Structure to design on (374 residues):
């Protein structure tokens, strides 16, 4: 099985598939040591292999960043977990070192994370009390499509792993959301009500620690019609039972959350599977909501606005504040469902229009452009 994609292979795969996203005048791939991001281009790691960390998230630890994402393989079958969650690290966000597989799939067919399951959108936090690293991910059981809608948890003593799988399941079985209404309870055919005994569905997800230090698991639930935010236990390895519905019926997924200017912002997508759609943005004073819609954050051509530059949100990376100004990098995936390993990354700086975060395409850009050398 091919589970690496190197520059030669991609050059052979050709400019055709890279299309408009090819780097003007500089070949397909960004070069190492080059102090620019090249949205949509190949991104070689320290071995010259295109980074394989899709649907990812980044954790700052010590003086490095750690990027965790889905390891995809070649072909249409490559969206299923054949390998696990891949980790990379970087001191500068441009050059990434391959740190290997942080969470490996299991060879035991009875394991929930058996090879052939679906492991998506992994995110990692560090428990400051124990120094342990806790990974959450969206898990679908082998052979069951997207029906299980489970959240999985794994822990490690070292940031790059190996992560040990703890458990997976639905969220808060038997419980009502904290912001449930009488009308919600009366909708006996709704997913919220029907799923309550066994727990709420959990698909696309992120983790976020709020200003008070509370950690949240935010996920697409109720058959992707409604996001939910479930509070984590202090050791980050479980839900504490309290959860809130966010933007009921809003049909959001791929949530990415950040805190700026004293408020919480979220960029999310609509529900079109691997195909891109217009992004949405929201603002709130608390993770529990209420969240207010700010509209499509993309500024550019109608096509860019309709497709989020061909990508789907996965994470917003806060950069260390310089001269008191907060700066953020929006991260998205351009999925390539017919050849999953060829998925691309779109990183763009978040700009502001009044109090709204906005995104503009750049063929290449650097942290220096943002005044945020790291
Ligand atoms: C997307 C989702 C991806 C993946 C895909 C499968 O909507 O954001 O993470 O689950 O659907 O079709």
């Amino acid at each position: 099985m091919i589970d690496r994609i190197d520059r030669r292979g991609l050059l052979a795969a050709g400019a055709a598939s890279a299309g408009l996203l090819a780097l003007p005048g500089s070949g397909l791939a960004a070069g190492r040591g080059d102090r620019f991001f090249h949205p949509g281009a190949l991104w070689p790691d320290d071995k010259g292999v295109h980074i394989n960390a899709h649907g990812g998230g980044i954790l700052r630890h010590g003086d490095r960043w750690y990027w965790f994402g889905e390891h995809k393989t070649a072909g249409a079958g490559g969206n299923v977990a054949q390998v696990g969650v891949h980790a990379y690290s970087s001191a500068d966000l441009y050059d990434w070192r391959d740190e290997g597989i942080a969470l490996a799939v299991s060879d035991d067919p009875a394991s929930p994370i058996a090879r052939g399951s679906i492991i998506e959108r992994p995110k990692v936090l560090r428990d400051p009390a124990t120094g342990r690293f806790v990974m959450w991910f969206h898990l679908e059981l082998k052979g069951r499509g997207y029906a299980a809608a489970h959240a999985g948890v794994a822990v490690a003593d070292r940031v790059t792993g190996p992560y040990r799988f703890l458990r997976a399941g639905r969220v808060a079985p038997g419980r009502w959301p904290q912001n449930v209404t009488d009308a919600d309870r009366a909708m006996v055919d709704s997913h919220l009500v029907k799923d309550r005994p066994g727990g709420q569905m959990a698909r696309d997800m992120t983790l976020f620690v709020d200003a008070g230090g509370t950690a949240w698991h935010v996920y697409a639930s109720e058959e992707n019609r409604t996001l939910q935010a479930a509070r984590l236990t202090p050791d980050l390895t479980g839900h504490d039972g309290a959860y809130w519905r966010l933007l009921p019926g809003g049909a959001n997924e791929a949530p990415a959350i950040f805190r700026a200017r004293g408020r919480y912002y979220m960029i999310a997508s609509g529900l079109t599977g691997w195909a891109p759609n217009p992004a949405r943005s929201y603002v709130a004073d608390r993770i529990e909501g209420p969240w207010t819609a700010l509209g499509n954050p993309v500024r550019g051509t109608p096509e860019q606005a309709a497709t989020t530059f061909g990508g789907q949100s996965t994470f917003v990376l806060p950069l260390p504040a310089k001269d008191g100004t907060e700066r953020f990098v929006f991260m998205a995936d351009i999925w390539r469902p017919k050849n999953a390993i060829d998925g691309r990354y779109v990183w763009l700086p978040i700009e502001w229009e009044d109090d709204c975060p906005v995104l503009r395409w750049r063929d290449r850009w650097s942290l220096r452009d943002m005044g945020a050398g790291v």
Remarks:
- Residues 7-27 have pLDDT under 50 and may be disordered.
- The pocket of beta-D-galactopyranose is lined by residues 55, 120-121, 204, 253-254, 273-274, 312 (CB under 6 Å).
